[in-house]
């Protein structure tokens, strides 16, 4: 099996995106290519068809490789909960929360057994493995128990491309410094350097290339240009911050998403933000709320703490003023739970708060259980009277990730009907307030449905006296175009002939040592 591993001089240098690009490049060549990342730390996750949880970046990489996402692509996922603790997802299932010390000093090497098992299964079914590292491989305080960078490269004997982000500055020093901090065996695995997010005239960078190659003895295999508006899902909140900084669109419809401290699954709103007549803004403070056409409370990894943040920051009062003035409000997952009368956490699953008063928009109470619900769903919206219009939907694909069980304290209308799948019974989901101004749901991904998304936006348009529009975006086609464009740019920027030769040479050396089948 041929493999290539992408590591960075720091977090957010573009490892995930370049891994996605290589997956599509190799997929176009007819290879059976699969992405892999041993361990992710992210709040933006996904649920596979078999109900297992994994990082969002490997989902995009799987799509680029023409594959259905599967948890073997990301066997370990850490979801920060606050106070230096994370929920540990092993092979797609939560095994509880651990402190950073408990995990790194005691459990991570045990989890590496699952990493090796996942790799063994992938090696049976695929011929090319594109592996992503995390952060930097040169964090000397973490190396002894690191299971995502050089431990994986050495286990696979995979050639490594070391990536630096020149847009941040200090790219040359970070490449040289990273290599200096690696041991001899690790440096030998680094077969090339990549400069990412380059702006300007590449020819002016020639002296720097010469310096790097002479100083490190490693070839510079590519200078990848800065790519604007890639349209590919991110899992990192840093990506969200960068997107906000670049947000300059002023559109007819403004949707305000409350930016919770532990906001999760922010990709729920990417499809809305991509619409030409929609501006999505992330709101942290009451004065930023303004007069939106719609407010959304998103998912949260720590719902009670985030609910207290909404209350103590003054956002609760600002939201209430807007809703009383006729602004519609939607809650997704944790945001849906906040819309109820109370949230109870008797087992202290998410925090030390036994019970927190909800926002009181819907007649319900949520109690956190120790068992987590993770499943893909197919839902209908038989006819929801929302904000003066009827929303309809059929066969909408989504997924659930939540700890809570919600009980209703009064009769309520449910907006979504979930079809029975994999032995489960059909059921209703969510709740709609009687005046049709507020609704919530546990379903992530609803806005990815082109027809439902456009109906929702048109409802907001009609209330503003604007004419409704036909469907403007095909989400699936848009993603495919994004993967193709990314692959085209990266393929022309990297010396792919040398990359392929390096991969083939390393695979051949393994076979010569009797390490391949």
UniProtKB/TrEMBL annotation:
The keyword Nucleus appears for this protein: no
InterPro entries: Class_I_gatase-like, CobQ/CobB/MinD/ParA_Nub-bd_dom, CobQ_GATase1, CobQ_N, CobQ_synth, GATase_3, P-loop_NTPase
Domain CobQ/CobB/MinD/ParA nucleotide binding as annotated: residue spans: 4-230
An annotated Gene Ontology molecular function: ABC-type vitamin B12 transporter activity
Pathway: Cofactor biosynthesis; adenosylcobalamin biosynthesis
Highest rank taxon of the organism: Bacteria
Organism from which the protein derives: Mitsuokella jalaludinii
PROSITE patterns in the record: GATASE_COBBQ, GATASE_TYPE_1
Protein name, per record: Cobyric acid synthase
Function per UniProt: Catalyzes amidations at positions B, D, E, and G on adenosylcobyrinic A,C-diamide. NH(2) groups are provided by glutamine, and one molecule of ATP is hydrogenolyzed for each amidation.
Record keywords: Cobalamin biosynthesis, Glutamine amidotransferase
Catalytic residues (UniProt): 333 (nucleophile), 444
CobB/CobQ-like glutamine amidotransferase domain mapped to chain residues: 254-451
Family the entry assigns: Belongs to the CobB/CobQ family. CobQ subfamily.
Gene name tied to this protein: cobQ
Alphabetical GO biological process terms: cobalamin biosynthetic process
